[in-house]
């Protein structure tokens, strides 16, 4: 996951090839912060908590016995949450530290239907040796780390078995452009990047001392996402938008419980105060492979 605070330079980075290693160093350093943080609350997860948002299981459907690939899985809490729903899961991430943490967590909770692979998302087909999956899942805060969305969509499509589908749940690009007061745009919706940031700490602990603070991100419009998925040969089934998000990133946001979906997620979400015009904060889409 990521927030949009801390931008220092919206120009191009020094060398295009630096972005991957820059981001990897940042994520590797933050893994121990995240595994020990109250934000991820791994003790609660070990005790049985499911970290999926309420609408996700409804939109994905029954995953019992399905092969599910989670791209950019980080420390694996969402991946293992799908395993707790009955899926045979594979998590993939470019951070070796994150993959190691995910493997340890799977062992601690006794989840034998989970495996974790260290690889860049663009290299996933080779790393997985041509294996395909019933469901390819990408969760919150993933797409902003990828410069080439069309390549991402082609990669995801190549990993889906016939009759399977891509499911994406992400932060909405409109919300990511709002200023802190939530009333006007502060960022250019069409400024795709690269955007460079230099910010200590982490969304899980903003006060944590860190050394690798530089990161490189990209913005992708809703049109970019839908067009990339369609161009990859996938058939869009739905695009849903929601008026809540997972972070208190705007002034005066109201904290509440996730009541989306037929069973509710039970986690914490944030909305704009009642009476304020609502904007889309997160979205989900599902696209199938015939």
From TrEMBL:
What segment(s) does the record annotate as region Disordered? 1-20
Q: Which UniProt keywords are given for this protein, alphabetically ordered? A: Methyltransferase, Transferase
- Domain of life where this protein originates: Bacteria
Keyword rRNA-binding carried by entry: no
Q: What is its EC number?
A: 2.1.1.222, 2.1.1.64
Q: Which Gene3D superfamilies match?
A: Vaccinia Virus protein VP39
Query: Per the UniProt entry, what is one GO biological process?
Result: methylation
Enzyme class, first EC level, given as a word: transferase
Q: Where is the composition biased (Polar residues)?
A: 1-11
Q: Which GO terms describe its molecular function?
A: 2-polyprenyl-6-hydroxyphenol methylase activity; 3-demethylubiquinol 3-O-methyltransferase activity
Q: Where is the Methyltransferase type domain?
A: 69-166
**What is this protein called in UniProt?**
Class I SAM-dependent methyltransferase
């Amino acid at each position: 996951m990521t927030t949009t605070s801390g931008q220092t330079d919206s120009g191009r980075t020094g060398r295009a090839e630096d972005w991957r290693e820059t981001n990897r160093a940042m994520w590797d350093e933050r893994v121990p912060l995240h595994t020990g943080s109250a934000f991820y609350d791994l003790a609660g997860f070990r005790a049985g908590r499911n970290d999926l948002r309420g609408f996700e299981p409804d939109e994905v459907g029954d995953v019992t016995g399905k092969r599910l690939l989670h791209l950019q899985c980080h420390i694996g809490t969402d991946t293992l949450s799908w395993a707790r729903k009955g899926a045979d899961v594979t998590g993939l991430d470019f951070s070796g530290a994150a993959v190691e943490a995910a493997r340890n967590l799977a062992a601690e909770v006794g989840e034998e239907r989970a495996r974790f692979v260290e690889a860049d998302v663009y290299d996933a087909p080779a790393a997985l040796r041509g294996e395909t999956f019933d469901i390819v899942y990408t969760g919150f805060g993933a797409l902003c780390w990828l410069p080439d969305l069309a390549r991402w969509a082609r990669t995801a499509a190549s990993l889906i078995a016939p009759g399977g589908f891509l499911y994406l749940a992400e932060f909405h690009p409109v919300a990511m452009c709002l200023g802190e007061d939530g009333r006007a745009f502060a960022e250019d919706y069409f400024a795709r990047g690269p955007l460079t940031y230099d910010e200590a700490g982490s969304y899980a602990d903003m006060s944590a001392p860190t050394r690798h603070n530089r990161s490189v991100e990209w913005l992708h419009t809703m049109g970019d996402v839908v067009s990339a998925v369609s161009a990859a040969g996938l058939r869009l089934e739905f695009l849903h938008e929601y008026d809540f998000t997972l972070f208190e990133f705007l002034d005066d946001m109201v904290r509440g419980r996730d009541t989306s979906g037929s069973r509710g997620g039970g986690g914490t979400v944030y909305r704009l105060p009642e009476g304020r015009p609502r904007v889309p904060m997160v979205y989900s889409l599902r696209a199938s492979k015939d």
